[in-house]
Amino acid sequence: MPAAKTKKAKRPGKMERIDLRLRSDQKDRIETAAYLRGLSISDFVVQSADEAAKKAIKDHGVWTLRGEDAKAFIEMITNPPPPGARLKKAFKQYVEEKKLRERKTN
């Protein structure tokens, strides 16, 4: 009788490695913070860096305007200035090129 096949536990995605160089005061601070949180230094660094990365990505995609900046932005969106000569020229060129592309596909 053949031996029963056992399922192997699936490992999470391949782990990557990052090497860092830091000053001794930075290392001491990181070690202390990791100890206070009950984490290994590696886990602390990974969690902290990942949180900082997520925040940086979010901050890059989200604008927060307050006070006069918010008022000026809303004013420009709701009451934009009339198109200038360069914008009119660019739009005319776009329309002409679009017509040419449509003719080529038909």
Question: Would you kindly provide a written description of the structure presented here, covering whatever features stand out?
Answer:
By secondary structure, this protein is an all-alpha fold. It has one domain. It has four helices and no strands. The longest helix is centred in the middle third of the chain and has 21 residues. The chain is elongated and about 65 Å long. The mean pLDDT is 89.
Summary of the model, kept short:
With 106 residues, the chain is mostly helical. Helix content is 64%, strand content 0%.
Overall geometry comes to: elongated
Structural classification: mainly alpha
Main sheet: strands, sense, barrel: none
- Helix fraction, binned, reads 55-70%
Mean pLDDT across residues: 89
Question: Roughly how many Å is the radius of gyration?
Answer: 28 Å
By DSSP, the count of extended strands is 0
Distance between the termini: 68 Å
Order of helices and strands: HHHH
Count the helices. How many? 4
- Sheet-strand content, in percent, reads under 5%
- Total domain modules: 1
Features:
106 residues, 64% helix
